[in-house]
């Protein structure tokens, strides 16, 4: 529910120790999530609980109340200017980025100057499209008119390199016009710039005429394109391939199976998360919206806590979830709440209050039509095991939901518009919510508590592959890569896939999108299972069973668990292993020495003989599918 560090643990412990038996009994008798949060939130001990001492004590997680500091922004800008003098354009670009992130929203002219400075650094680093983008931004912010000749001339030079000559003509014309307003530029320099610009115009115009006035090439789009699912989609589950169907039975619930034979390597699902949240430790280096690394970041106008990789991601965030989370983000981080609790809140802040008020009319009904990843009702109806939970479990999660409801009130969400003023520290001297929001506490408290329960079993970690410098070995490019946990998300279609300790698919990420591909041949009708964490090659059956029971509340009955397959480190290179194939059901595995000359091997369990020749032939035919695991381990063949 929450990390060890953070004030939520203190809040939880205080509330838990303050509840008397009558209050606990009253809570235990409540039958809905909404009633649980409405009851807890209205208790006198919630209204009297003061967060300020714990928040002020916690130095990590950003400044609260949220504030941008002009002196800090100017310091970064000055340091960037010094790096320019040293000729270190990379450091200069990074420092100008920090200055931009910390620059207060009202300082539009200073922000425009910082963007212009960064455009110069990017130009020197040959990042021409990015330099053009910063020039556009600084002009939109009202870059000083007497300095505009600089950015117009820089724009023209960038466009020339990009062979966008028609646009370059306009930029050189703007350069000449703007020189009339360059009041601080001495006459000699002004004349030289004007002459150079006119000369370039003459050359460009002649070249364009001779070439027949061709159109400029389109700007280079460096945004990673959305991955596309090859072939046909499943009409009922559009994120999945037509090779996947979703079935249901009483034991397994909903699960994925193959609607046709699937070959190894096929892409079976590409899905954007319904909701996802970046880990706090990557907030300064990765895009808050798509989780991509941000070497040339854009900031939030009102807080210094997040960055974005593009105008598009910035706009999505600022017009939805971040508009509400901006003033409360330090409280989320300082609380120490887990990433799943933050996702539970994000699932609300990313849509409007009115959206959820409309949805509540039929939340318990599964939507008719295609199963859409962006439909909250599909998340709401995922497994939550509410009926199996103890009252103490529900009470613990309700404490977090009460805290998150308080944050919604502070954010302005209940008033249907983001707050325009800083949160005053006195506003967190109570965990109670104003009486006028009673209905909102019941509705959204119930939804958040439901989200927390659903996410326990259905959230996924989002990984980024971080690679060291590549090296060439025997004409093959190799690198040591690590998968690093950078975000958490919930993928509604993938959440329908069951677990196996020997999964038939692997998943990886492209930005926020999850991509699922087969790692083995799967016959029509067979289950298509993913892996929830423990895998038979690395973890013993006992450990796997305990982990899955503790985290996901089920007993795994996959084939490796039923047959107690060995780990890779338990396999011996001196013998092979074959399943008993005696013609009668037998779960035994037959160890066969690698120098064995007999083809008929007796099973020690059923006392029948198995012909291993078939397995050896299969091994010979399919050996190209066996991965090099760095040793000579043998596998179980059938």
TrEMBL record:
Annotated GO CC locations: cytoplasm; nucleus
Molecular function terms from GO: histone deacetylase binding; N-methyltransferase activity; protein methyltransferase activity; S-adenosylmethionine-dependent methyltransferase activity
Keyword Methyltransferase belongs to the record: yes
Domain SET: 242-533
Gene Ontology annotations of biological process type: compound eye photoreceptor development; methylation
Entry keyword set: Methyltransferase, S-adenosyl-L-methionine, Transferase
Record SUPFAM superfamilies: HIT/MYND zinc finger-like, SET domain, TPR-like
PANTHER family: SET AND MYND DOMAIN-CONTAINING PROTEIN 4
Name this protein carries in UniProt: SET domain-containing protein
């Amino acid at each position: 529910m929450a990390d060890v560090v953070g004030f939520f643990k203190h809040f939880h412990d205080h509330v838990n120790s303050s509840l008397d038996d009558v209050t606990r009994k009253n809570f235990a008798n409540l039958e809905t999530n909404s009633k649980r949060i409405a009851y807890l939130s209205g208790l006198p001990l919630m209204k009297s609980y003061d967060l300020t001492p714990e928040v002020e004590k916690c130095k990590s997680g950003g400044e609260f109340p949220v504030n941008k500091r002009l002196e800090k922004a100017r310091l970064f800008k000055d340091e960037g200017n010094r790096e320019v003098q040293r000729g270190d354009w990379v450091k200069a670009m990074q420092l100008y980025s920090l200055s931009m992130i910390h620059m207060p929203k009202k300082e539009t002219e200073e922000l425009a100057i910082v963007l212009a400075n960064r455009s110069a650094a990017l130009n020197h680093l040959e990042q021409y499209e990015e330099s053009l983008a910063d020039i556009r931004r600084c002009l939109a912010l009202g870059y000083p008119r007497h300095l505009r000749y600089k950015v117009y001339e820089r724009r023209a030079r960038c466009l020339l390199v990009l062979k966008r000559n028609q646009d370059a003509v306009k930029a050189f014309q703007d350069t000449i016009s703007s020189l009339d307003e360059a009041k601080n530029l001495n006459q000699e320099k002004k004349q030289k710039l004007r002459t150079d610009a006119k000369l370039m115009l003459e050359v460009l115009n002649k070249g364009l005429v001779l070439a027949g006035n061709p159109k400029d090439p389109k700007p280079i789009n460096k945004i990673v394109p959305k991955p596309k699912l090859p072939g046909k989609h499943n009409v009922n589950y559009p994120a999945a391939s037509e090779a996947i169907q979703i079935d249901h039975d009483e034991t397994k619930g909903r699960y994925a199976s193959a609607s046709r034979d699937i070959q190894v390597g096929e892409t079976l699902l590409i899905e954007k998360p319904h909701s996802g949240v970046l880990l706090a430790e990557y907030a300064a280096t990765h895009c808050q919206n798509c989780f991509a690394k941000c070497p040339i970041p854009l900031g939030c106008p009102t807080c210094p806590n997040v960055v974005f990789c593009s105008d598009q991601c910035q706009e999505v965030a600022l017009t939805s979830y971040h508009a509400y989370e901006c003033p409360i983000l330090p409280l989320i981080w300082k609380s120490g709440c887990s990433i799943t609790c933050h996702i539970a809140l994000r699932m609300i802040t990313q849509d409007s209050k009115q959206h959820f008020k409309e949805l509540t009319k039929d939340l318990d009904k599964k939507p008719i039509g295609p199963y859409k990843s962006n439909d909250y009702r599909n998340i709401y109806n995922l497994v939550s095991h509410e009926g199996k939970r103890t009252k103490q479990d529900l009470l613990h999660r309700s404490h977090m939901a009460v805290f998150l409801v308080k944050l919604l009130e502070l954010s302005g969400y209940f008033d249907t518009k983001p707050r325009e003023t800083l949160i005053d520290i006195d506003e967190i001297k109570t965990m109670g919510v104003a009486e006028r929001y009673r209905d909102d506490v019941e509705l959204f408290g119930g939804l958040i508590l439901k989200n927390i329960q659903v996410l326990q079993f259905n959230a996924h970690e989002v990984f980024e592959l971080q690679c060291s410098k590549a090296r060439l070995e025997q004409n093959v490019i190799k690198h040591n890569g690590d998968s690093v946990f950078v975000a958490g998300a919930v993928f509604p279609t993938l959440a329908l896939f069951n677990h196996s300790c020997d999964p038939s698919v692997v998943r990886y990420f492209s930005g926020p999108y999850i991509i699922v591909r087969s790692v083995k041949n799967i016959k029509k009708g067979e289950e298509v299972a993913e892996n929830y964490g423990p895998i038979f090659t690395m973890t013993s059956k006992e450990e796997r069973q305990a982990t899955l029971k503790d985290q996901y509340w089920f007993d795994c009955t996959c084939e490796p668990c039923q047959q107690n397959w060995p780990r890779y480190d338990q396999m011996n290179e001196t013998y092979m292993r074959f399943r008993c194939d005696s013609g009668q059901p037998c779960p035994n595995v037959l160890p066969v020495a690698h120098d064995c000359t007999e083809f008929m091997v007796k099973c020690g369990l059923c006392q029948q003989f198995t012909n291993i020749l078939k397995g050896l032939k299969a091994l010979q035919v399919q050996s190209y599918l066996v991965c090099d695991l760095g040793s000579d381990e043998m596998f179980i063949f059938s």
